[in-house]
Each structure stands twice: as C-alpha cells, then as structure tokens.
Amino acid sequence: MRGDRRPDGPVKIGAPEPYRSTPIFDETTLPAGLRREHRTKVGVWGVIRVLEGRLRYRVLDPVSETILDAEHPGIVLPDQPHLVEPIGPVRMVVEFYDQEPQLASMGDCAIHV
Predict the structure, then answer these.
(1) Total number of domains constituting the chain
(2) How does the average pLDDT of the chain come out, rounded?
C-alpha cells in the first residue's frame, strides 16, 4: 500500500490492497469455522476469491445466497454474518482489507440464487 504523509496522518493513494490473505483452501482443507456462521471484525472487509470450482456464499443478515466462481468474487462487509459451502472441488482464498475494496467490476461480484 502506498501512502503520503500529511499533518493529520498517512493518506492512502490508489486502490486499497489487502493487508492479509488466508492460505489457499480446497474443499477438504476449508476450515469448519468458515463453513458455519462467522463474521469479520468491525472495519474489516473481505473478498472471497475462488481460484477453481464454485462456492456457495450465504449472507445471513440481510439474507442472500450467491454462487462464487473465478469470474465472480464475493464481498464480505464488516461485521456481516455469513458462511461458505463448497460445491464440489474448489480452491479459494480470502483477502482482508481495512477499507472498502475496489474491484474492477463490482456489478459482476456474484451470481444471486
């Protein structure tokens, strides 16, 4: 992440970059904690990136269900309860941001079911 110093602190320039990412998970290594209800911390966004296969992404409040694939990442809002479920073989990673991520095609983030 690039930043310039200002009297009131660093100013971030350009698109936000993740400050942390999970390892790559597959359908057998995906932790049980991600398969049941969980949430990011307040002020933390997530981007679920499917590298191969498909993943069911359920948001519990407000209720919605989407299918994620390599062309359609999922956005996790701060403190939003959600869970994921593999649909067959899958490889995926989650990126964490301290500000809202800017994806190239936010309209193509997910397929609503």
Answers:
(1) 1
(2) 86
Within-domain flag for 7? no
**pLDDT given for residue 106 in this prediction:** 45
CATH number at residue 30: 2.60.120.10
| Torsions phi, psi for 92 (to 5 deg) | -150, 165
Q: What is the pTM of this model?
A: 0.81
Task: Please identify which residue in the block is written with the tokens 């057998």.
Answer: 28
Domain, as residue range, for 26: 16-100
Q: What DSSP character marks residue 69?
A: B
Is residue 62, in this structure, part of any structural domain at all?
Answer: yes
